[in-house]
Write a structure and sequence with these properties.
alpha+beta; Gyrase A, domain 2; 4-stranded antiparallel beta sheet; two-stranded antiparallel ribbon; 22 helices; 8 strands; 8% strand
Length: 514
């Protein structure tokens, strides 16, 4: 039972790699286009103001933005595909139907109970998703829909109904059952979300404590990211009295963002109100820069150094893309999600360390940023503005880098976490590098005991999953000569062979050979 749970968790973690792989490069484009469209970038680099160039940049932002606006849908499909063992296409179809059902059921619950917001939607955890005003459950909502769809697919894809309902039997029953199952789920989630939102509002004043507030804020903000509730926390502090009321030149400004807009873009570094900037920006860009410019690269380096030797080349490309997505685009989710579900305890440590290592912002008087935390923002709001103490940010960032690197390196090795590149070391990578899939297939078929011993072949994101007639006929050592990164039997007469991103091409070749 314990091994089965472990295998299930690992399969679940790997099922997230498909949407993460999509988010990384698209997030990079989104971040760059977003930065280059900012008015402050155009004012510093006038050539960016070219009408044709800005049209291209803004449209790129719109195109890539739609992907990030629908992250939950991507996770629903990715989880359904990765977790289902049979009829993956039906599982993916059902997950989309299930997620749409979840959205509209939550909308109905909010409407009937009188909780459907008419303004400031983000402050109560609501938003417009696929044209429906609903709770923004972010990735969690999609993951729930994907898990339900995968489970129901494996359980009911061969369901036989009475003759009168025979048309709805088998695979057709799965989306119908998913639709029905997501209705009670959609009614239960708002109750939990409402309680969490009210709790956040009730304790929001604590986050402005002059001694521990900024550390507590970044700790909780990271914990809330998987649930999408970090938007509620951000909006509370940035736009409402929970973030403070500031008197600047005799006028009151409510919330952190409104005060920063006045000081940064109108009054400037030489105005007396600039003394407020270190505290204000520690909840915005300064704190975010510690993550995007230092912590994420440190985690990426730890992942690369702990990857097995034969896998480093493949892992490097993935890790670099994810790191650049944060560094250039202010998008940290691809890296965070890469270990969140594989090792939730490590994610908690990550959140805790994010809070603790942000505490020095209280006394280092750093004013290097606005909202975002990219290298572009550091250059503009750190280097080009006066009195920002940008050198202190670099020193604190180096401290963050060292802490996160060694903590993640230790955790990955100590607990054998399957971060990128940590499948079993590849004995013979030449065949895969040269894409000799037919030769690989020939080795596999022979090592598996011949065509007659293969009952069924399938694959997830990284593994071949093969049902066998006789497990004893398998030559495991010969299988490793194919370039496989790992071979194991999760259950009798069922083998998993790991090929990483090449797996679909290997499967196609095996099916032809078999």
């Amino acid at each position: 039972m314990k091994q089965k749970m472990k295998d299930g968790i690992q399969t679940f973690g790997r099922s997230l790699l498909l949407p993460i792989a999509v988010l990384a490069p698209i997030g990079l484009i989104l971040g760059l286009s977003g930065a280059l469209a900012q008015t402050y970038m155009i004012s510093k680099f006038p050539f960016l103001g070219n009408e044709v160039l800005q049209t291209i940049i803004k449209n790129l932002r719109a195109i890539t933005g739609v992907v990030f606006d629908n992250i939950p849908l991507l996770f629903a499909m990715g989880v359904a595909y990765g977790m289902s063992k049979k009829e993956k296409g039906i599982a993916v179809f059902s997950s989309v139907l299930g997620y749409l059902t979840l959205l509209i059921v939550m909308n109905i619950w909010l409407t009937v109970t009188g909780n459907l917001a008419t303004e400031h939607l983000s402050e109560v955890g609501q938003g417009i998703v696929l044209g429906i005003q609903t709770l923004k459950t972010e990735a969690v909502g999609g993951i729930i829909a994907g898990l339900v769809a995968a489970k129901l697919t494996d359980r009911f894809y061969k369901l036989e109904l009475p003759l009168a309902f025979a048309f709805f039997s088998g695979k057709k029953s799965v989306p119908i059952l998913t639709f029905l199952a997501m209705i009670p789920v959609g009614l239960a989630i708002p109750i939990i979300w409402e309680a969490l939102t009210k709790f956040l509002i009730s304790i929001s004043f604590i986050f402005m404590n002059e001694y521990i507030g900024v550390g507590l804020y970044w700790f909780v903000e990271k914990l809330l990211i998987p649930f999408g509730l970090h938007h509620v926390l951000n909006e509370l502090l940035r736009l409402t009295a929970a973030g403070g009321v500031y008197v600047i030149d005799g006028q009151e400004y409510t919330g952190i963002l409104n005060a920063v807009n006045k000081i940064l873009f109108e009054l400037g570094p030489n105005h007396e109100s600039w003394s407020l900037m270190p505290m204000l920006t520690s909840y915005m860009g300064s704190g975010q820069m510690l993550c995007t410019l230092f912590r994420i690269p440190a985690i990426g380096l730890a992942m690369y150094h702990t990857a097995y030797k034969g896998n480093k080349q493949i892992a490097k490309g993935t890790i670099i893309t994810v790191v650049l997505t944060a560094f250039l685009g202010n998008v940290t989710e691809p890296m965070e999600f890469s270990f969140l579900f594989i090792a939730p305890q490590l994610y908690f440590v990550y959140a805790l360390l994010s809070g603790i290592t942000a505490l020095p912002l209280n006394f280092l008087h750093i004013s290097t940023s606005y909202i975002r935390g990219t290298i572009f923002d550091f250059g503009i709001f750190g280097l080009l503005y006066e009195h920002t103490n940008w050198l202190n940010l670099i020193l604190l960032g180096i401290f963050n880098f060292i802490i996160f690197y060694f903590v993640f390196r230790y955790a990955i090795l100590k607990f054998n976490l399957k971060t990128p590149g940590r499948e079993e070391d590849v004995r013979n990578s030449t065949l895969l590098k040269e894409k000799k899939y037919n030769e690989i297939a020939a080795i596999l078929v022979d090592a598996l005991g011949g065509k007659a011993n293969i009952k069924n072949i399938d694959n997830c994101i990284t593994r071949l999953r093969i049902d066998l007639n006789d497990q004893g006929a398998v030559d495991v050592e010969k299988l490793k000569d194919s370039g496989a990164a790992g071979v194991f039997f999760p259950q009798k007469n069922h083998i998993h062979i790991v090929f990483g991103p090449h797996v679909e091409f290997v499967r196609n070749a095996v099916e032809v050979a078999g």
